[in-house]
Amino acid sequence: MSKIIGKGLPDMPWQEKPEGYDMPVWRYSQNPIIQRNAIPSSNSIFNSAVIPYKQGYAGVFRCDSKAVSMDIYAGFSDDGVHWKINENPIQFDGEDPEILNREYRYDPRVCFIEDRYYITWCNGYHGPTIGVAYTFDFEKFYQLENAFLPCNRNGVLFPRKIDGKFAMLSRPSDNGHTPFGDIYYSQSPDLEYWGHHRHVMSPYKGDESAWQSTKIGPGPIPIETDEGWLLIYHGVITTCNGFVYRMGCAILDIDQPWKVKYRSKYYIMAPYEQYECVGDVPNVVFPCAALTDADTGRIAIYYGCADTVTGLAFTTAEDLIQFTKQNNMN
Amino acid sequence: MSKIIGKGLPDMPWQEKPEGYDMPVWRYSQNPIIQRNAIPSSNSIFNSAVIPYKQGYAGVFRCDSKAVSMDIYAGFSDDGVHWKINENPIQFDGEDPEILNREYRYDPRVCFIEDRYYITWCNGYHGPTIGVAYTFDFEKFYQLENAFLPCNRNGVLFPRKIDGKFAMLSRPSDNGHTPFGDIYYSQSPDLEYWGHHRHVMSPYKGDESAWQSTKIGPGPIPIETDEGWLLIYHGVITTCNGFVYRMGCAILDIDQPWKVKYRSKYYIMAPYEQYECVGDVPNVVFPCAALTDADTGRIAIYYGCADTVTGLAFTTAEDLIQFTKQNNMN
Amino acid sequence: MSKIIGKGLPDMPWQEKPEGYDMPVWRYSQNPIIQRNAIPSSNSIFNSAVIPYKQGYAGVFRCDSKAVSMDIYAGFSDDGVHWKINENPIQFDGEDPEILNREYRYDPRVCFIEDRYYITWCNGYHGPTIGVAYTFDFEKFYQLENAFLPCNRNGVLFPRKIDGKFAMLSRPSDNGHTPFGDIYYSQSPDLEYWGHHRHVMSPYKGDESAWQSTKIGPGPIPIETDEGWLLIYHGVITTCNGFVYRMGCAILDIDQPWKVKYRSKYYIMAPYEQYECVGDVPNVVFPCAALTDADTGRIAIYYGCADTVTGLAFTTAEDLIQFTKQNNMN
Amino acid sequence: MSKIIGKGLPDMPWQEKPEGYDMPVWRYSQNPIIQRNAIPSSNSIFNSAVIPYKQGYAGVFRCDSKAVSMDIYAGFSDDGVHWKINENPIQFDGEDPEILNREYRYDPRVCFIEDRYYITWCNGYHGPTIGVAYTFDFEKFYQLENAFLPCNRNGVLFPRKIDGKFAMLSRPSDNGHTPFGDIYYSQSPDLEYWGHHRHVMSPYKGDESAWQSTKIGPGPIPIETDEGWLLIYHGVITTCNGFVYRMGCAILDIDQPWKVKYRSKYYIMAPYEQYECVGDVPNVVFPCAALTDADTGRIAIYYGCADTVTGLAFTTAEDLIQFTKQNNMN
Amino acid sequence: MSKIIGKGLPDMPWQEKPEGYDMPVWRYSQNPIIQRNAIPSSNSIFNSAVIPYKQGYAGVFRCDSKAVSMDIYAGFSDDGVHWKINENPIQFDGEDPEILNREYRYDPRVCFIEDRYYITWCNGYHGPTIGVAYTFDFEKFYQLENAFLPCNRNGVLFPRKIDGKFAMLSRPSDNGHTPFGDIYYSQSPDLEYWGHHRHVMSPYKGDESAWQSTKIGPGPIPIETDEGWLLIYHGVITTCNGFVYRMGCAILDIDQPWKVKYRSKYYIMAPYEQYECVGDVPNVVFPCAALTDADTGRIAIYYGCADTVTGLAFTTAEDLIQFTKQNNMN
Amino acid sequence: MSKIIGKGLPDMPWQEKPEGYDMPVWRYSQNPIIQRNAIPSSNSIFNSAVIPYKQGYAGVFRCDSKAVSMDIYAGFSDDGVHWKINENPIQFDGEDPEILNREYRYDPRVCFIEDRYYITWCNGYHGPTIGVAYTFDFEKFYQLENAFLPCNRNGVLFPRKIDGKFAMLSRPSDNGHTPFGDIYYSQSPDLEYWGHHRHVMSPYKGDESAWQSTKIGPGPIPIETDEGWLLIYHGVITTCNGFVYRMGCAILDIDQPWKVKYRSKYYIMAPYEQYECVGDVPNVVFPCAALTDADTGRIAIYYGCADTVTGLAFTTAEDLIQFTKQNNMN
């Protein structure tokens, strides 16, 4: 059986797969777990990241205000399901005021490496690029250099150095509603200078896997397993009425993560429920974080729904890996 | 406390703000008040205007037929909530057959000035422009010259002359689904010849108030208050799945209404409810009329929902003015 | 009273028109009759065709997989309402491997002519074109040449030869989300070579019948009546948030079917219900098949809903023909 | 023979039609008459207007600077061929600083009415609209209100009041490279307030006169003749490599100039010469002014060439009117 | 040495390759051979076809009028260089008035098969498609059915039946300035019904042969040689300033012409000369016809220049075939 | 007087400014210095870079082949005017075959730093990005990692380390004909890892300097002077017939080159000459290299003309700096 390499998390949110359900990922029965107006100023809360912290959980949340201004907020939870989100956005410290200057911030990820929590997000700097910061306590945040030139989105760190280097997936873009997008792998000795960029994977052009034919982007922090890095990502198709965002899965080589070992031609989850199909942007499921328990292989995925609310879904490493290998189209 | 300058309307539709509700505008609990097929020929009834008339209310309604042909219809109500809409569209008399020729008509407003009711609407004349007519009884309608050259939409009269001139807000456009749009102020000695055009306000380009970043347009007849003209308007953002129409508020100078005194960076209402999010055009709230009671400051807003049905919402002059001043970004 | 020319089908699915309902087509009360995941691999089942077969019914179904790959599947039913769809797509035999090569297949129609069942569908061959095949038993399918060069969609056969030739309606297109489209009539001595193409009808440019202003396409196999060929078709309008697909009706000359005798300016059905307004492509009703009973004039229409599920609706030849003649705008 | 109604101008620039030349308009043999850098700051001088003034001629010239900033400059000439253009742009006086504020100015026309010279031009005011000013001496210029809301271009006054009103042709547009455009007629009692807008003519959609299928716009001040107003205008076609601007002719009713009596299906001049085909915008001839001699019927047309230099061409009222009537497609 | 299979034509236009010239096709030294105004009504004469006829040559010419209306005209020449073009367009006889109705006609080809001359051209019939006609004498023309449904352009017949069928190349398109386009091969037993469509070749996506990356289309009637059918075609690239049309060469299998044996990655001719780079559409060379002499292998290519004038160029079968084989990228 | 900081180059190409010429940059009288077919395989040679080398000059040239494949070629010259370009493109050695894989290469720059010549160019790697290589002798070239993720163009190194880091200007783009583009400054300790990205300057939105309103990009290696880094760059405007590329000048802070000290609102050179206005892409001047003589301040600019040939132009540091300061709009 496939094994997650990492720590145990026995009390993480969990529900068993419903009887007779035949998809590899199933929804939490009380979804959405975070409503659009969970803090007074918010129009919508979605595309957000969580991580184990102390006895419970911490997170960084995308809250669009009622001005539809996009920013990221810290929050805390005892059980990973019920969240208390700060009413003010994160303030960053750092060396250079030019980098600290806020244009807009959205779609955060959180990654623990070595001794601290790193935050990456889509950061406005003459166009969207990848903001990087770290925190020890989710109260004080220290912002580093942007990782890349604009335009880029969906910067996702690996949870440990690979070949002695920090490693990040990202998805170069344009500065609008980008109708294209490949995933790349980049390396850094110091989280300041990035290079040795490698192409990982492209949208699939053609009918065989059309749900991911317009663009793809990495989702949660890759999960280390004995089969390789388990990557949950989003894929987009262009219909005559706009984009539909779905969720897919791939397995990357453990030492050379730009090499795709397996990639499922089927989506693992798609907008079926009312709260995923109706909202500010209809027909979107967008995963940004996952909790894992190495002892049981359980995975809890946090995902944005219709760009409006936040949902929770469950799977196991064994489920995802078997599904991906059986439906591999790599 | 802010005061509406005008007449009392003690029996106007009204519900108190729900307990614990923290937005400045709240919905009528029996929304939508007009269903899509309220007359036999209609596909949808929305973006419509009402006004006190005799002991009750009269209105001009946009009814798209089951051919999806757009026209405007008169209707009457005792209580402002239950409406009897004529089954045939308004017929206009007038001097010049070229002007009377109907291409299409939609998005009406109604304004009482001095001794009669003026109707303005989006009128097809080799492209959309602002049609103008008057009636004394909502039975006979007399059509004047179009106010402007094409292409223009959302022509909204002020309820009295300003500096001795009739005054109108409008939103120049293209002849498609216009991806831009500012509000302008124009003046006329006679409702025939228009000039002295002044720029009022633009969409807000940037994250600070992104809900109104694509285009804006005036909604109901401006409401005269001791703080200035209270303008409820619509603002539009472009998502990857199309436009979202929301409702905002500004306060214009009483004598020089092209000068914006306050403008809220937050929307005052947005598509949250099923009947606003799902319909022929998802995610639209579009205000076209307001009833006011000077004695209490109560305001009842009539708005189109998803380009399909008509909704009713409530606020007060005090609520809106305080909200706008506190969140001013002018 | 208008009469269908054809066979009786006394046990076909049927419900009487609801009391007080004033549209010419009414929905089945248990809609949708086929859910999105009615077979294990499916993301959605819609835009599908059925036909009487032996003691019951057979059909060809568009099932998009959970890779959102588009293919067509055979299925069977005793009552026309409850369907058993094969879990594997149709395999075609034929002469030329180049033609048999599958790129993608969607939006099938089924037509019985003389001694066998013909299938037409949108077939990928360096762009979409019209695939043609026949079967005697819905188990073995023999694929003929594509009827036309790319790009074309919605190829619909007539149920008998006309003037000694096979006859087909189609809708030339581009290879994207085609923003235009007329219906044409083409003839063939042998189903291999096609010619004598005739223009049938165009979208209606203008407000008078705006629901069909972007493009139109034929739906079910035309129904022979004593008034001419009854053609149910789809019409599309472009809103600021994408396409809306509705259903309309026309009557074509019995001997020269490229001549339109009557065409209704009103739609006969439009997306009103939740399962038609919400789904992978919101706001779509798309008819692909009809069952008819010549003895009673009853018609049962099968149609795709929001590109996600399959619905059933009822009408009669008398209803449709009277509606079309009374609202004729030809 | 057709007659110009107006003054004599015996010394106006003139060359006889070349032997064997069969088009109705012929070029000046020393074209271009104004080079791109005729003043030190200019990148290009084109789309400019001239008029008889004192013993010679005055003009208003579009000079794009070497910053490609667009402004208008006064100039003077003894013979209408050799011009001295001021090195600084026109400064306007006027009542309202908001109107006087310069965004950009281009494509001027000059028209003498009653006692003074009126200038109209494309004036930036939150988008292009029609600026209006007058001068008595081409030294002091007094700017009036903009005639219309944005977006509009090519505002061309008539040289006398019609039915007691000032009259202007214009071409509503978008604020980019407008791919559409009709000519309209508007009226004003005072040059301040405008109304009674009438549609004059549209681009010609179809092969019969494809050179004017994208957009059209009025050129010089209309020339009064015994056949009606002689209107020289530009017409545009969209090729796969952009727009081609050509010159056409129409005759408008003398009392109701929005009624087109004749309109030639053929262009009267097109980019043939190197200086018309090569330049900052290839393939443009753009007429903005005409001198006329009522005694002989001679007409001298000033036109921009490839948005870079200024050319001069000749014709007669008789030539143009006969050509237009013989090739009428109205 | 490669040999043309066909007749001798000893007096065809010819000039030897200039000393030191290293391209496979060289221009006639007196180009252009037909000026834009060679007939009184013409704006431009280009994209035209010629063929040996009696003792000299006949041709069908695209003459755009000074209304920029597109039609085709017959013409005659003793030497193939100096042409007398009729002043009126071709009139067609035929069976069906609907087919005979002229919308527009352009880009003709002429092909002798068995006993008569066939004309094909881009024919307007609710969009561009392939018109077909024949003549025995270039005076009376008999029009057959359109070969295909719209939209299609560049229909080019083969000069003899292949496998017992008439054969045609064509390039399906949209009805604008089509930014895509593959060449297809279609077959017919009778020139009335067409089928057995085969894909021949696509634009080349990528840097290796970028001049033909946007679209390609067949040019002159294919030339039969002992190596296969020699196909001269046009290829298009999209630059930031529009399309550039160049000329390329391929060799098709003699019995299965949809199989490309060789295709040169280099163009054989491109717009270098002033009359090819400057005109109504800059940067176009567009071949439509070729004369050949089987005895010497000489080939004379007639091509449109900048959509304005007609040029002549020379090569030999040996030159083209060697060039194509040596630079093959098939 | 402004001084260039660097070496003398007494024999560099030079011509004095023509008498009476009033622009800051003047053309070489024998332009173009390199014809489109200067090597047998070339369609065009332009956008190329030169540098002093041994007793003469070396260069890297963009030669588009007659397949319009884009690659870069080494070449040599004794006098900087007459060039001998290799007939085969540069071959690169390097560590990683994935990086060495050639998709396309264009628009090179050459920069000497410390002990070797660095080449940067637009390198195809799943989209355009910045390729980097070095050579000691223009015979063997060693390719390093790409500097950035796609999409990027116009990577231009500084000729020395700044603040201990290698420094590069670049212009992030999309992967088409990019209608936007700012210049950025990036730093690297080792030419492998890049970071500390800084925004330098944007297109100028507005009429004041419209020639650079669409996009801008760095040209030659910045020239060190006592006033700062002298940056010659290209600016683009969008006309209705496509882009026009012109040449501008800015002065960057010597220690913090992302700070713009001066920037001229006027262009310093624009397409005026036939070989700049007519060619594969009309209306382009595109500077890629400059030779300088510190003793005299002379500058010779090499620039591409109409994407077809290569031109040479002259100026001095004093001329450019004074012009830029006097016309500063920073």
Automatic annotation (TrEMBL), chains A, B, C, D, E, F:
PANTHER family: 1,4-BETA-MANNOSYL-N-ACETYLGLUCOSAMINE PHOSPHORYLASE, GLYCOSIDASE. The keyword Zinc-finger does not apply. Belongs to the glycosyl hydrolase 130 family. CDD domains: GH130 (cd08993). This is Beta-1,4-mannooligosaccharide/beta-1,4-mannosyl-N-acetylglucosamine phosphorylase. The keyword Transferase applies. Keywords: Glycosyltransferase, Transferase. Pfam families: Glyco_hydro_130 (PF04041). One of its GO terms (molecular function) is glycosyltransferase activity.
